[in-house]
Amino acid sequence: MFDSLDEQIRADDHKAVSSRERVIKWVIGAVIAIAVFGGLYMSVHLLQG
User: Fold this and answer.
1) To 10 degrees, the CA torsion angle through 27, 31, 37, 43?
2) CA angle, corner 10, sides to 2 and 31, nearest 5?
């Protein structure tokens, strides 16, 4: 019962979100990740002198 309900929820979510919105979310996530890791890298680099 729960497996089919979970699959139905996923299918409904997939239909509700366009591929453009999914791509935008992935791009925003990648930019945030690059900014966070880039900031960590720069701060460690600056602390090492």
Assistant:
1) 180
2) 135
Instruction: Give the burial class of 20: count Cβ atoms within 10 A of its Cβ; 0-12 exposed, 13-18 middle, 19 or more buried.
Output: exposed
The 3-state DSSP class for residue 17 equals coil
Q: State residue 8's pLDDT score.
A: 82
Please give the full DSSP string across 13-31, using - where no structure is assigned: HHHHS-HHHHHHHHHHHHH
Pairwise CA distance, residues 23 & 30, whole Å: 10
Domain ranges in the chain are: 17-49
Q: Is the pTM of this model over 0.90?
A: no
